[in-house]
């Protein structure tokens, strides 16, 4: 049995930032476990720029952003194990690890930080009818093939789903010499950032077909084409709107799912909306001493937000290790109301907040010229004017603890239309 103060599961941007912050807050005995061959996580294959504008005030590529944290991680001499898989976590914070180098290991931690990231939804998850030929990839898999392995998935491409990875891969495939016929999106709005719609589609004259989906896949050994149709308000295909696109490659960018199998085994309560853990203001889950941050908690659109959240988590885990647990005073529940898809954190213990708290949220549709209304019970504590809100862009709101304490037992956020 190996003993550590903090074990971080995941060596991507969330895990690195959390481990570094825990070390800066006095914790020496830290272990980071990463199942891949190198640190950095998904950033290693994101060779496009646009990272770091909030954290570093400059534009970096994914590997450059990761390198900043990896260099600091090594300077702080934090212990880590690569190519190592966490098999199980128990509620008493005992872990079972396995790797080719170390074999089977049993590890006991005072605190655990979950930073496993997320995975892509597959064709099987969305039930597209048709044959099962070669040439169908998730957008992230294609990104790794092109940017890290040096393989080109195909030359004639259609992309289903307009999440950020799908939008970025549309541009990447054109850069690599492929023809991208269309990006097909089931919803009436894109799931990606506005800047990616502009830079990756509009700048390359790639059509974005909103309210459309793929209703059939054609091909025997290799993909030959897909049939696309418009959908009605109930998401059913409209007859006579079918259009066939000849292609040898279909990329799927149809959503990301937090990797929470380990969380389930540990008995952690999950939020059905985000797919991640239910957490308090310290990013602590329903199991005392187990924390969560990054895309394993809720899917972020910017890695800068992952870093901010993970730094907070690392600091919270350090406090948990060195301070005696104490009552958190009143507990305020956060509730997503009209127009809001979800809020993180799910509850706020008032005595655990020093000055202010940042809450993260997403809306459930596109809204123009509205007000973001924050209330404690019936008392309005903030009215924030918003010109534009979209599901693909996460919002962050800072609230003072005085405003929270002055209200009731619930903090609600909603959209107020026509309020400007």
3D structure, described in words:
With 420 residues, the protein is α/β, with parallel strands linked by helices. It has three domains: 1-120 and 255-325, 3-Layer(bba) Sandwich (FAD/NAD(P)-binding domain), CATH 3.50.50; 122-254, FAD/NAD(P)-binding domain, CATH 3.50.50.60; 327-420, no CATH class. Helix content is 22%, strand content 35%. The chain is built from nine helices and 25 strands. The strands form six sheets. Strands 1, 2, 3, 4, 5, 6 and 17 form a seven-stranded mixed β-sheet that branches. Strands 8-15-9-10-11 form a five-stranded parallel β-sheet. Strands 20-18-25-22-23 form a five-stranded mixed β-sheet, with no helix packed on it. α1 (13-24) packs parallel to α2 (62-75) and α1 (13-24) runs parallel beside α8 (303-322). The relative contact order is 0.13.
List the helices and strands and how they pair.
Blueprint: E1 2-9, H1 13-24, E2 30-33, H2 62-75, E3 79-81, E4 84-89, E5 94-99, E6 103-114, E7 118-120, H3 123-126, E8 136-138, H4 139-149, E9 156-160, H5 164-175, E10 179-184, H6 194-201, E11 208-209, E12 212-219, E13 223-230, E14 243-246, E15 249-252, E16 256-258, H7 261-265, E17 290-292, H8 303-322, E18 331-336, E19 340-344, E20 347-349, E21 356-363, E22 367-376, E23 379-389, E24 395-400, H9 401-405, E25 410-417
Parallel strand pairs: 1-2, 1-6, 2-3, 6-17, 8-15, 9-10, 9-15, 10-11, 18-25
Antiparallel strand pairs: 4-5, 5-6, 7-16, 12-13, 13-14, 18-20, 19-21, 21-24, 22-23, 22-25
